[in-house]
Amino acid sequence: MDALFAVKYSYLIPLLPLAGAAIAGLFGARILRGRSHWPIWLGVGASAVLCLSLLVHMISLWRTGQSQLWATKDFYTWIEAGQFKATAGFFFDPLSAVMLAVVTGVGFLIIVFSAGYMKGEAGYYRFFAYMGLFIFTMTTLVMANNFLLLYLGWEGVGLCSYLLIGYYYQRPAAREAAKKAFLVNRIGDFGFGLGVMLIWKVFHTVSYFGGDGGGVLEMALNPTAQQAAAMRYIPFLLMLGAFGKSAQFPLYVWLPDAMEGPTPVSALIHAATMVTAGVYMIARCSALFVGNQAAMLTVAAVGAFTALLGATIALRQFDLKRVLAYSTISQLGYMFTAVGVLAPVAGMFHLVTHAFFKALLFLCCGVVMHAMAGELDMRKMSGVKRVLPWTNLFILVGCLALSGFPFVSGFFSKDEIIAAALRQSPILGGILLLTAFLTAYYTFRLYFRVFQGPLVIPQPPPAQEHAGHDPAHQHRKHSHESLILMLPLALLAEGAILAGFLNWPKSGLGDFLAASPSIAVATAGAPAAEPGSEPLFTPIMGMSALISLAGIALAYWLHLADRARSDRLAAALGPLTRVLDAKYWVDEIYQMFVVEPLRQLGEVFFLIDQLVLDGLVALVGLVPQLGGFAMKLSTQRGYLQGYAAVMLLGMAVILLMIFVT
Amino acid sequence: MSTLALQHYLAVGGIMFVIGLIGFITRRNLIVMFLCTELMFQAVAINLIAFSRFVGNLAGQTFVIFLLVIAAAEASLALGLVVLLFRQKNTLDADAWRELKG
Question: A337 with A417: CB under 8 angstroms?
Fold first, then answer.
């Protein structure tokens, strides 16, 4: 393992994008300008090549039957204080290799797309510098070999997310969304930070594996009494961080608002990579979670609930990107359910396929948004396939994958999760099946409304046309599908179709991932699937295929065959429609029960500060001021003799003090 | 009481200093006040010379020569200032300048 080229030079994987970001950030404004994407392309591209080579080499090692398929490599001691020691080091196993390949591979495609998409935007270099920084922090998060470095990456991606959501900082909505994302994540990260501290307190190390006396994840399998007691709480604390970062109930509220960022950001950070960090983290820390039934059940239940919640809200959204945002929340719920029911392989499988098809969907939305002059309301457009034939093809692939259409990637991965959930509990499985139906429906509702039907293109007011783009763009009005946009889409679409076959008909990805020490722990405790070889096509697969087709059919019936029918149905289901339109009033509840009390508390503190603290400070200042005033009236009257007498008196006092003591 | 001891010199210096001090505090005339400060100045010089002679060290006397030069320069400056002040108000009373207080 250590001899692998990619392991030896693994420090380049995060550092190359960072170097690219530094170059783009420092020289982009004046020198590079419209070429600012080059350093990022090169940096992320090189790091993607390294990651893929790592994955390929690891697979070939696995094929040859090497028993130990993991390595940990310390580069230097990062922090050493008393007993505490944290290294800057990386950990390699199938889990991190797969995750790295997704992050840098999909990331690279999205960054290529961005160069076409963001062309002519103000702050072009800034966008690419942030993107490079994001890849740096995300790869650090994935490769870290200890909890502290993981935490660094964790906070780093949060920062990049904040910066990129607020990319259009001139828009108040973008600023608010960025702040909201940051603050909500803060709640989760607070728990995560406490978890890391508690881990250090009881395990006296923060390394995952290796090191003196074994790492945390090794000791957790054989805990002492004190460690076992702490392990009752650690998973819940870590989970809080995961729920914040991966937008799970109740901390999901930031993700829909995060759509204020540029679309490639939504695709990369808020669909494909960053938001899956929570799933990755729980899969990585399986050893801490498996022993704790309550924690596992919480993860699974919250995941399933969030899946259903996100899907139901997505039913009544009209903004293309918001539909996809709620869909992302819902799909992340699936992944959490998977890791919660001890099927992290299924969760990671869905993570991989989801990265492909959700990035694809978001980027297609970006193309639509460009062509429709920034319009995202699906009520104002229709039949777009006539204008955007290629995008129509790609988004169809993405929609099929998301809705779980048979033999497209999402079908296999979602099905594995549903099967695992059903083995654990029929309720969880049932919720996920219902969600699958809703997913198919809202996905094709979007597709049928926007891409099929009669052609309707929103006419923007002339002044606002292509706001934010360079004037040259307007002349290329009819080439919305330039090669630089379509090529990444084509590759992603290919991934969205084919990624499913990674784990079907043979459990290839699953067996590979099972070689990871983290995953092996979890799968060992999972209720076994049917003994013997798994059948190619299980009854559950048939059921979910039918459900998906039913959802698509319903969408066709309501949104393509006769669109008025959907409005009539919405009117007939009045109260339900209102609840969904209001998104269950979750934002309002937050406003009323969290934001407002906090604001009022803040105002109380402000008043206390003003009256009590500032009063004390002013009082301290007032005493010498008053004294000075009194002196001025009494002694400083302008008589030279008076001054001389005071001097004399002072000298007398000093002399007395000298001679008397 | 044939020889002059250190105490005699110090007594002269001390008396001169006190006279100057009292004069400075009691008189209002700028020139007189200035003369009083000079008186205190010279009292200190006498002290220095007396000590210098008593310990047999020339440093004190050297110091006094410098002191006298500086006193002369300062006296010319101060008298010039007094003349200017007199021209402003046509009086030498120090209280005429009370408004200079802070």
Answer: yes
Q: Cα separation of B73 and B71, whole Å? A: 5
- In a 13 Å sphere around the CA of A290, the CA atoms on its Cβ side amount to 24
CATH 1.10.287.3510 fits B3-93, yes or no: yes
Rounded Cα distance, A231 and A292, in Å: 8
Residue A469: pLDDT band by 50, 70, 90 thresholds? very low
For strands A84-92 and A71-81, give the pairing. Answer: antiparallel
Helices marked H in A372-425 — which ranges? 389-403, 409-424
B95:A645 CB<8 A: no
Amino acid found at A204: H
**Are the C-beta atoms of A641 and B26 separated by less than 8 Å?**
yes
Mark yes or no for CB contact A644/B95 under 8 Å: no
CB burial string A21-34: b at 16+ within 10 A, e below: bbbbbebbeeebee
**What ipTM was estimated for this complex?**
0.82
Q: Decide: A182 and A162 in contact? Cβ < 8 Å.
A: yes
> Which residues of A are less than 8 Å from B102 in CB distance?
632, 636
Taking CB atoms and an 8 Å limit, are B95 and A638 in contact across chains? Answer: yes
Find residue A80's DSSP bridge partners.
Answer: A85
Q: Which residues contact A130 (CB under 8 A, 6 or more apart)?
A: A21, A160, A163, A164, A167
Look up residue A533 and give its two tokens.
């070889």
A211: tokens are: 């090191």
Distance CA A443, CA A397 (A): 11
Q: How do residues A303-339 score in pLDDT, each as one tens digit? A: 999 999 999 999 888 888 999 999 999 999 999 999 9
| B101 closest CB neighbour out of A637, A645, A648 | A637
The single-letter code of the amino acid at B70 is I
| Block residue for tokens 């650690």 | A234
> Cis (ω within 30 of 0) for the bond into A256?
no
- pTM for the model stands at 0.78
pLDDT digit string (tens) for A324-378? 999 999 999 999 999 988 888 888 999 999 999 999 999 999 888 888 877 888 8
